[in-house]
Amino acid sequence: MGILHTFWNSPIGPKTTHFWGPLVNWSIPIAALADSKKPPELISGNMTAVMCVYSALFMRFSYMVRPRNYYLLVCHAANETVQLYQLSRWAGAQGHSQEKVEDAGGA
């Protein structure tokens, strides 16, 4: 019971935004992970690149803020990983479609 009491009253516990912000923010990488089953032609390259920059910036923020918010750091690290995967899928689809256009133009 003492561990729960300590967690409840900690500076990053459930009484603070340091807990609830990352919890709600997990919806972003979860949605990106769910989108990984969709065709890569539906991925917005611009938006995915912006999400990569956003996660990288907020990983630094979550480490530098006091108290350090490791919950947010892990959330944004997961989002960065999933968004980079999505960006690679998008880039692969763009390269593949570019090859199709070149093949069709040369035939």
In short:
The protein is mainly α. Mediates the uptake of pyruvate into mitochondria.
Structure description:
This protein has 107 residues and is mainly α. It has a domain at 40-107. Helix content is 77%, strand content 0%. The protein has 5 helices and no strands. The chain has helices at 2-8, 17-25, 27-35, 45-64, 70-106. Helix 2 (17-25) runs parallel beside helix 5 and helix 3 (27-35) packs parallel to helix 5. It is elongated. The N and C termini lie far apart (74 Å). The model has no long low-confidence stretch (mean pLDDT 90).
How many H/I helical runs? Answer: 5
Order of helices and strands: HHHHH
Radius of gyration: 19 Å
Q: What percent of the residues sit in helical stretches (DSSP H or I)?
A: over 70%
Secondary-structure content class? mainly alpha
- Report the portion of residues in β strands: under 5%
Give structural attributes.
107 residues, mainly alpha, 5 helices, 77% helix, elongated, transmembrane helix
Blueprint (SSEs and pairs):
Blueprint: H1 2-8, H2 17-25, H3 27-35, H4 45-64, H5 70-106
